[in-house]
Amino acid sequence: MFFSKKCNFAFLIFITMCGIVAYVGHQEAYPILIEGLKRLEYRGYDSAGVALLNKADQLNVYKAKGKVSDLEAKVADKDISGHIGIAHTRWATHGEPNETNAHPHLSKSGNIALIHNGIIENYLSLRKELEKRGFQFKSSTDTEVLTNLIEDVQQSEHVDLFEAVRIALNHVIGAYAIAIVEKGHPDQLIAARKGSPMVIGIGDGEYFIASDATPIVGRTQKVVYIEDEQVVRIKLGEELHIKTIQDVEAIPYVQELKMNLDSIEKAGFDHFMMKEIYEQPTIVRDTMRGRLHPEANTVRLGGIIQYEKQLLYADNIVFVACGTSWHASLVGSYMIEKLAKIRVKVEYASEFRYRDPVVTPHDVVIAVSQSGETADTLAAINLAKEKGAIVLGICNVIGSSISRATDAGIYTHAGPEIGVASTKAFTSQVTVMAMLALRLAELKGTMKDEERLEFIKELDSIPEKIQWTLDHSGHVKDIAAKYKDVRNMLYLGRLQNYPVALEGALKLKEISYIHAEGYPAAEMKHGPIALIDKDMPVVFIATNHSTYEKVISNIQEVKARDGKIIAIVSQKDVLARKMADYVIEIPETECLYSPLLATVPLQILAYYIAVMRGCNVDQPRNLAKSVTVE
Hints:
- Helix content is about 35%, strand content about 20%.
- The chain is of the alpha/beta class.
- The strands form five sheets. It has an eight-stranded antiparallel beta sheet, covered by helices on one side.
- The longest helix has 23 residues, at about 450-470.
- The radius of gyration is 26 Å and the shape is globular.
- Residues about 1-15 have low confidence and may be disordered.
């Protein structure tokens, strides 16, 4: 061996959002693998591949650029037999998206096939050392380097594959989730992870491996979430054998998978995104269930109860998040500051980790993520811990990396979100933050009992008001038809509706590829007003609240410059609807809760515009469901 020194790494920086599926058992592997890849398509990818070990001990590897359907077409006349196999969808990082760079990758001897999520940061130095030892590489990937590193360790150290993987990973810097199949071992899979998620499903005489639980749903309810720096031997007829890369034995913790097949199917909708938009009344109710108690005028958040005192007396509550979760956190900051009178900061996790933020043990950091796997947010958590802060989490996925890395937290209970453009995650996160604000206000005594009760009752009515909004949104499709061919749109809102403007613009950008910007409405005259003309649609969130008259003034400014106005208004509105070209109504509500309603028609508007433009709504270009690459 040419390695003499173990490489240490403080925390993970790079993770790709590819998809992994593997199977060993009594069934034919190929149909299970392909079904699993299709369930993972929401993650974003540009190529797909599969490796199958048949009864003749032949390791057949098939790869294709493009979609899983392209892979299916390619193997139509090939040998796809075998009861063990690995499959992968790749989102290109090292090397262009093509068949050569697609996974699985074979070792030099052809005995080992490996699939990999993540990025090996020191792959270039590893590659150079392996090239000196006679290894040649066909691809531009870090994954092929890892595959040959493992084989080199296996041959030079005279150890089995399980031990070779454990040793090799001590010399790897970066992130990985890997699954490996080996000739001569038709009953064994090897898996390992660091930073990139991986779950093992335990069936009746069979095992499943996947990047997340969606490929496993409907096949078993018994799962084991692999922890960081663990290597697992999965062998038929034996219990899971787990070691850390430091050679410490670990006991697998078997959990019940709390997900059903209906939650990952379209249920009659054309796209997952629209299904998830229409799930929001139910999701918000599920998020509040067991927590919001109007009859007792209280909110109970059991997941963070032991940290309530720290929240109350924190110098700052600091939200760290990315994308839609950052917008939800902005809404949460308005709620907590107004109701509980606690100072709140909202940080982009990607910036937080690099700018040496002032965080002390007297602060509470709250990490917000739908997937619980966002790399920048995970790095922000590690940084906050280093500075001694309490770190809480708000996320959707039970067993995710963020749920394990934080001191405590609150699950949103939104269920699987398959559409890449987040919808129900936003409303569930905002609902959690509303309850957190009410709970802190109750404990701190910043609201009178009768006032707090009105806020609690109003929050309890939000699911019905979201449903009303959905039931009265049919004309949004007509508005979409009018503006589907524009090149730019501007979204404006004030106070808690400024994040709604940001979120509305983000949805349009993500799925229709139309340039859109969100601004505080008052900032329009400080630059963006120069863009206003007859070809510029402007979306105003003009609901009834304390700055309503100011928003009306902003609408007048746009109208005077021939801008086209789409206004989100409350039912009793009079002024804004007279000036707007198109009006979308939402029910009257407490102004702090208006984002829970106003965001919904903006999601629908973006959806219909994207559909009419022929865009792939559920899998927009260049995007992955969880942004886990820097």
